[in-house]
């Protein structure tokens, strides 16, 4: 591997813009190629950014021989692409969720262990400035024993014509898409989930997958968590709060902060200012440093596999529908 990393992006839709811009601004990286099954999209994006466009991702790997590849396609394609890249020794930044099925997720985690290449699963909120500040406060033990965790990641997005509306392509709807982000944030801050209850349904939009879901967690640390996600709420509905034995942490402005902390018995909110930053920049910085052997990945196939297990258990519980009330 030369000093300059040659990068390629597979799937040139919505989220690829973040991958393209972060490779373009990273030092020591040449964004060499992009591939999309939609040839017109591949040609247009390639022309716009001056890289080589392909309508066949394997051809891109053969001809360009990238050192790092981003996978930005719908989840049902992640396994085939990631395993092939890893087999070739190419480092992979794969978009979340890790895959659309448990079998695929496990195969990807296994491949990451077998080959001499990194696999990051892009749970970008680990680098979100307000979440980083909450993590600092928790690491400083301001809360003591955590008791109750609440997070809502919901709003209105029309997804009827999107891959997220297809169970085969996405593996699930709002619960899989945003619920996996929210579960990963819980894991990052609080540790693993030991059990989960859930309701998930298609309440408003005309789609095969769920557009509203609620999960209740019990963490390995004993903390209870409640996570609400959805595409069909009338407007943005973001909430974040952790209650512990020594006080309460909350975020009112998820994007800019501050993170608020109320020590027990004071009734006063202390504002902890947040260092401005971009979560994608942090994520790419960590990925590229890990590729160069200068850092450990913060979001791995293993952490992503735990998220996938939580979401799969949540869907199973949602189907069982709990205890009925006569
Ligand atoms: N980290 C985040 O916050 C975030 C945000 C949005 C999306 N995502 C994830 O990124 C992935 C893609 O989502 P999106 O919103 O960009 O979807 P999208 O539909 O906008 O883009 C997907 C692209 O993949 C292309 N594609 C499909 N099959 C292909 C193939 N065989 N070869 C090459 N290209 C192919 C499509 O033509 C399309 O351009 C999903 O896993 C999604 O969950 C993550």
SSE inventory with pairings:
Elements: E1 5-10, H1 16-25, E2 29-35, H2 39-49, E3 52-54, H3 57-64, E4 68-71, H4 78-87, E5 91-95, H5 102-114, E6 119-122, H6 129-139, E7 146-156, H7 167-170, H8 174-190, E8 193-201, E9 212-219, E10 224-230, E11 232-244, E12 247-251, E13 259-263, E14 270-272, H9 279-291, H10 301-320
Parallel strand pairs: 1-2, 1-4, 2-3, 4-5, 5-6, 7-10
Antiparallel strand pairs: 7-11, 8-9, 9-10, 11-12, 12-13, 13-14
Helix pairs in contact: 4-5, 5-10, 8-10
The structure holds nicotinamide-adenine-dinucleotide (NAD).
Keyword list:
single chain, 326 residues, alpha/beta, Rossmann fold, eight-stranded mixed sheet, six-stranded parallel sheet, 10 helices, globular, binds nicotinamide-adenine-dinucleotide
What does this structure look like?
The protein folds into 2 domains: 5-122 and 281-299, Rossmann fold, CATH 3.40.50.720; 126-277, Dihydrodipicolinate Reductase, domain 2, CATH 3.30.360. Strand 12 and strand 13 form a beta hairpin. It is of the alpha/beta class. The chain is built from 10 helices and 14 strands. Helices cover 36% and strands 28% of the residues. Nicotinamide-adenine-dinucleotide binds next to loops.
